[in-house]
Amino acid sequence: MTALKLHNALETIWGRPRGWRGVLTNVNHSDLGLRFMIAASVYFAIGGVLAMLIRAQLSTPRAAFVGPEIYNQLFTMHGSLMMFMFAIPFFEGLAMYMLPKLLGSRDLAFPRLSAFGWWCYLFGGFILLGAMALGLAPDGGWFMYTPLASKTYTPGINADVWLLGITFVEISAVCAAIELTVSVLKLRAPGMSLMRMPIFAWYILVTAGMMVVGFPPLILASTLLEIERAFGWPFFDPERGGHPLLWQHLFWLFGHPEVYIIFLPAAGIVSTVLPVMVRHSLIGYGWIVGSILVLGFFSFGLWVHHMFATGIPHLALAFFSAASALVAVPTVVQIFGWLATMWAGRPMLWLPMLYIGGFFFIFLLGGLTGVMLAMVPLNWQVHDTAFVTAHLHYVLIGGFMFPMMAGIYYWLPRLTGRRSHPLLGRLGFWLVFAGFNVTFLVMHLTGLLGMPRRVYTYQPGLGWDWPNLVSSMGSFVMAIGFAVVVIDLGLAVLFGRRSSRNPWRAATLEWALPMPVPSYNLASLPHVETREPLDRGHALARSLAAGEGYLGRDREGLRETTGVEMVSGRLTEVVVLPGNSWLPIATAAATGCFFLALLVGLYWLAPVALVVVAALAWRWAAALGSDTDRGPLDAGRGAVAPPHHEAEEAPGWWGSVFTLTADATFLMSLLFGYAFLATVAPGWPPPEMARPSFAAAGIVLLAVLAAFLAEREGLAASRAAATARARAGYGLAATALGAAVLALLAFGWLGLPAPSGHAYGAVVWVLLGYGVVHGSIAMLMLAFVRHRLAAGYVSPARMLEPRVVRLWLRYTLAAMLLVLAAIGLPGAASWRW
Amino acid sequence: MALVMRSLAGLTLWAAGFSLLYGLHGLGCGLGWTREILGPLTVLNGALIALWLILLGLALWLALSSHRARPDSDPRGLARLALVGTWAGFVGLLLTGAPVLLPAHCL
Fold first, then answer.
1. CA distance B105 to chain A (A)
2. In what residue span(s) does the Cytochrome oxidase subunit I profile domain sit (chain A) (predicted)?
3. Distance from C-alpha of A761 to C-alpha of A689, rounded to nearest angstrom
4. Is residue A156 domain-resident?
5. Interface predicted TM-score of the whole assembly (ipTM), two decimals
6. Do B78 and A676 touch (CB under 8 A)?
7. Which of A66, A127, A481, A781 could cross-link A165 (Cys pair, CB 3.0–4.6 Å)?
8. CB contact, 8 Å: A375 with chain B?
9. Separation of alpha carbons A470 and A481, rounded Å
10. pLDDT in tens, A9-53
């Protein structure tokens, strides 16, 4: 087959339909990544306009530009949009777009999940923007501290908009995290071992792993606060055994890692772009990988440094102060690696390098003030002042925006096939750089002079007048700079010079793709033997386009890419990816209905939406898999590998592992909250403890055991091709699990106190709800496998679905037992029959 | 794979140990362990120091054993990663746990 015929065949397989149908059903990672980046940029622009309104208000004392109500909405929406709607989605989009190209793959591991995440993000954003247009935007700060965000002090739906809208968007983030983690680990070009991966993939792998465990605490916190606001369950109300600091703990358990979740992908861009700009390979690759891992872990030990002024014990302050200082070490290891690379190379001051220079200057200052803030005495002095505002902007704009701009300009030829105007781009950089420093450098002084954050006005004569005016002027210069950048990029897309295939002479695989990027990325996939696989000529690119690599053929119209063993990069399977579908948008719309129903108080509609989600999920899963054994397939280059349904470690299995990891983090966060309230909150022990029933608990235990054994029998029979016995096993397991769910509910109705009287009752009912929801989901999964056995989608060779369901079932059973113990053991004295 | 697990083990031990120390401090304060005296220390001090030393011992054992580990594939890179991970876990526990040597009051 000639290169052109191969291109046409693959384009037919991987392309999307024309028109609206194509827009709504598309699951291609390049298109979805671009959509994320464009939508996030729009949110950045909106957040930027809000920032200018804030600066206009603060430019002079006693300004009457906006009142306190509007001002509160402005700074809340500014922070929320920048953190949740811009920074994370933008890097997700970039990662979605670039990763398969860097890894020599044709798409991400779960294309429909990417599309589902995109629609959740879009619909969640509509909720936030719609509320803002109606004057109902959240107004309690982007951190939504209780009791300010509780019903008593924020009675309207403004806070609910934040809690439900952001949670909806977080579903998108968790989907992306799982998608990216599995894609990096499994969907690489053969031969690309972990230590041969492009450094950007390491950064995204660690970041995505952090998101898997970082976001569930926030989702839990939002869920608990929404339940408190909607139904009066008092998790954060100290009058009834709750504690406002529980919110802060859960929020910052997410919030501090979030800073590194934003910083690490940006640092990944620096580690990718800088070596190309200085014409030298990255020095200290192994050390930098180590430092990313260490940073990923250590960043979870800092959350209390946002709470130094809340009156927690001094010893706890010392723990977190030490951790906050220590986290600077792995950051510095990366900086030394970059400096050494620059020292050894020959820096070319192209536009991406200018932005990297700006990053060094700004992020270094932000890092230094970060170490200052990690010290408790200074932290107390400048707590809640403009000094902290200045610090966080130095970290976030320096640590995220500047590297991202470097990345955009570096990959612009890859994204658009065109190059930007050199002078306009430089003008934009200098305006942004100067405007930023004028705005925020002086803001440190404003804070040291005592100006608090989040105040809508101030009196003259306090020494804050001129620094505020300077900051406001600087912010407008910065805004003009960003406008110049947008114009530059727009002109480049429309009228820019066409770029050659590899304009920077880089050595990573994304530059081997044709221009413009075809829907399938590479006509055949390379075998990677070094960290810099791309030769300086175009020999590899030409050979891949001619189909001389892996999978360089059309096999029955299937979307195929290579799956590898995670560590060594050995080819283990041919991953068959699903095609375009209505399911992602339909499922996201049904999920959106659930959140909207809760927001407007139509509580009867919420379960209906969930039933629709479950039905669509069933349809989604049923559309995957294969009903015939294929055996090893010809993968090209003389290699053979089974399709992923017949492989041991298919992406779907790993996707379940990481989903359950996120799920377990949610449960652990809930148990942490329970323990926190029990030891710290006033009004404990509660006036009424649970009076658990031995009978109900016994039935739960027996049913759990029966489900465990029946599923074991079902899976063993599936392996032995005894379909009838396997179906009976799965049927029995589902029935037993149903009995366990009912018994768990009876356990609650018979022995638990009312959830609205005391935080104890509220927490144990949420725990019980967790067990019931998970039991119901696992029951549905067991029924699904039973159905798939009958339909012929399971065989001794095709065991992926039973193995995935086993994971979920065993986790569910363990969680149910844990829930039972957490509820029953503290009240052991009051058990009854 | 063993080296990957080893790289994560030291850091996971740090995360678990840090949480345990913080949790034990909260529990001890909640149960009034600063009022109980154990020789020159309060019970809270003693419990925290004992836990810290146990964690340090485990982390040191992990770090030293990763020097002896032989790589299964991709030799130098992953072996170094395991060393970085386990030693970072040890140093992390040493520094972030060191405040247990301060008087453990609950104010």
1. 7
2. 8-529
3. 8
4. yes
5. 0.93
6. no
7. A127
8. no
9. 17
10. 999 999 988 899 999 999 999 999 999 999 999 999 999 999 999
